[in-house]
Amino acid sequence: MQLRTICVLSTIVLLSGMDMPAEAAPPWLRFIPFKQVDADPAKTYDITEEGGPWMIMAAAFAGPGAEEQADELILELRKSYKLEAYKHNRTFDFTQRVKGLGVNKYGHDKVMKHKHSVRFDEFAVLIGNFQSVNDPRLEKTLEKIKKANPNALDPQKRTTRSTQRHSFFLHARRYLTKDPNKQQFGPMGRAFATTNPLLPEEFFSARGVDPLVLKMNKNVEHSLLENPGKYTVKVATFRGAATMDPKEIEQWNQSKRVSDRLIQAEINANELTLALRRQGIEAYQFHDRHESIVTVGNFQSLGEQLPNGAINLNPAVRQIITSYSATKTIVPGSNQSTIQPKKVNGIALDVEPVPVEVPKKSIGSIYAQR
Q1: Is there a domain that residue 23 lies in?
Q2: How far apart are CA 179 and CA 47, in angstroms?
Q3: Of 195, 230, 257, which closes a domain?
Q4: Sign of the C-alpha dihedral computed for residues 58, 59, 65 and 69 taken in this order
Q5: pLDDT of 201-211, one tens digit each?
Q6: Residue 350: which domain range?
Q7: Would strands 231-239 and 337-340 be described as parallel, antiparallel, or unpaired?
Q8: pLDDT of residue 278
Q9: Those residues with Cβ within 8 angstroms of residue 221's Cβ, 6 or more apart along the chain or in another chain
Q10: Is residue 187 located within the same domain as residue 234?
């Protein structure tokens, strides 16, 4: 049995060094309980988007020699633990003053500063490659990491002082806790699942546009899906079926009038968008199963949230709402007023424009399908 194991391992080593096509690999190779992970001391394994959407935050380092210790841990995790470890660098700056809540006695925004005015670089060690937070491998790897005790983090095996953040508390907790499972935790005992910091927020959005609506907006000029902001202002709405009467809906279904109305809604939205663009206005259009809309502008924030929970609207957002809102006019020969929606190229706008959230493509679902 021992000889057979050695022969198999020797064969694996030979195969791993050969440039063999996938179809030529023997069937038993895929059942080997470990995998080859690149661990070259001459390389630096900086994190990339290819590191997977979900990762494990294993440890963080700061101070003189922090990057070197992070690289040391990454190489050990790759070589000895067969884990795809990566390095991610962030700079934390607490030297700048920040705007606080409320106002001072002069009515101006409060300006505050951090208690500890410091600026430092932090080097995090992340482990990938997991396709989702529910990936069974993620849970197993996380348990393995928490109980691991790599040489790079062992004070007794280091010749230089460790730069691992909160290392004292991590070691002390092992002796203070009464939980038998936590007593087995090592210097990475506080590891946790996290997202790949290089992927955009939309990647993990659960409210991505469904495939049918995405198809409806494919190749649309000035599509709202291309709006770079988080928010915009809806100025016009063109609906398809504008009734709740089941009989009318059934008649429309039989005569295909619903489709005709949706097509007309798309035409109106497109014409309005192009007309606004010709005026130099940043307009977008969007179509779904029931209606088409036209919006104006892109904003990362709608405004400042006040202590009472209300939002003090961004002046630019407020300006758009005011500019495109309907006007009140007095009916000739009476004291009564009427609301007159504004029009662009003969196309009527909504009575009252409203801020809306910009829909985003579900990057995560596209990644999963790929």
Answers
A1: no
A2: 34
A3: 195
A4: negative
A5: 656 655 566 77
A6: 208-362
A7: unpaired
A8: 95
A9: 270, 273, 274, 285
A10: no
